[in-house]
Amino acid sequence: MEEGLNQVEHEHISTSLEVEQIEMNLFRSKSLWLPLRARGVFGGQVISQALVSATSCVRSEFALHSLHCYFLTSASPSTPIVYSVERLREGKSYVTRSVKAVQNGRIIFIMLCSFQKPEPWQPTHQWSMPDVPAPEQCEDEEAVYMRIIQDPKSHPALVQFFQDQLTERARSPIAIKSAKAHQEAEGGRIVRYSYWMKARDIPEYEAPFQKCILSYASDMHFIGTASRIMGLRRGGKGAESLSMLSTLDHSIWFYNNDFHAGDWLLYEIDCPRAASGRAIVHGRMYTRDGKLVAVTSQEGVVRANIKDPALQEAPEKKAQPKL
C-alpha cells in the first residue's frame, strides 16, 4: 500500500488555479476537482480561480486585501466554469472588482474583492499565534489514514473509506498536518482545531499568486470543523449523523503581502455558533514565525439527519366501527 501511495503524483497548485483568458475580463477554468462525497466542485478552487481572474484585471501596485463570496449552487466538474470580471471602482488607494462564475448559463458563484495600495508605515496589531507543536513534530494526514487502514480492528467499511481518502489526499496540491484537535479554551467556552497547511513543491511566487494559493487552502477543513465540534459525522446514528455539509459564503481579509504558501501556515479554526441547519466558522492563518497573514470566515449548511417534526407523518387513526 505504501509503495503504491508513493507512486501517486500530486496535482500542482498552479494547474488547479489555472484559467484561460478568452476575452477582456472573461476567463475559463482549465481543471475542476470534485472531492469525495462532495455535492460539487471544491469551493476553494472556485474561489482561487475567480481570484486569479480578478487579479489579472488589476494594476500591480494594488494588493488584494479582502474578498467576499457566495456559493449559489454546486458546480459540475464536467463543464468549464466561465469567470466574468467587472471593474466596479478605480480609486487612488482602493480598487474593486466583482466576479460572476457561470456554468451552463447559470450563475453559480459571485465574489467581490478589493485591492489596496499598501500603507506599511501605519501602526500594526495582531493576536499572537497559538502554542502548537511545530509542523515537523506533527503527522501528515496520510500517515494517520494509513494507521487506521492497517489497524486489524478497523471495520472493512472504515478501511475502504480511508483508502479512498488516502488516495485523494496524496493527489492534493496541499499538504495538511493536524496541529491540535478539539482544543478547549476559556474553560471550555471555545473549542478550536489547528492545522498546518502548505502547497506542495512550489517556487516562491509573487504575492498576488501566493494569496490565490492561500484562498484555495482556506476552504480545507473549514466548515467541516463545525461538524466536528458538534460531534456530527457521516455514518453516525440519530442526532450524531451528518446528512449535509455545504458552503454558503466565504470571506478572507489579508494583512500581509509577504508570505510563502509553500512553507507551513498554521490555520486555527473555531465555531462560535450553529443553529437552524447552519454554522459559522472563523479562522486565522499564521506563518510559522507567528505573523497573522489572513483572517477568514465562512457560513455553511450543517445538517444532522433529523426530520422536521412538522413533516413527520401523523400516526394512522384506527377505523371506527360503523353503528
From TrEMBL:
InterPro entries to which the protein is assigned, alphabetical: ACOT8-like_C, Acyl-CoA_hotdog, Acyl_CoA_thio, HotDog_dom_sf, TesB_ACOT8-like_N
Acyl-CoA thioesterase-like C-terminal domain segment(s): 183-302
CDD domains: Thioesterase_II_repeat1 (cd03444), Thioesterase_II_repeat2 (cd03445)
Listed Gene3D superfamilies: Acyl-CoA thioesterase, double hotdog domain (2.40.160.210)
An individual GO BP term: acyl-CoA metabolic process
Superkingdom field: Eukaryota
The UniProt record lists the keyword Hydrolase: yes
Pfam families: 4HBT_3 (PF13622), 4HBT_3C (PF20789)
GO CC entries: peroxisomal matrix
Keywords: Hydrolase
Domain Acyl-CoA thioesterase-like N-terminal HotDog: 38-116
A molecular function (GO) term: fatty acyl-CoA hydrolase activity
Keyword Repeat in record: no
Family, as annotated: Belongs to the C/M/P thioester hydrolase family.
PANTHER family listed in its UniProt record: ACYL-COA THIOESTERASE (PTHR11066), ACYL-COENZYME A THIOESTERASE 8 (PTHR11066:SF34)
Protein name as it appears in the record: Thioesterase/thiol ester dehydrase-isomerase
Lineage of origin: Eukaryota, Fungi, Dikarya, Basidiomycota, Agaricomycotina
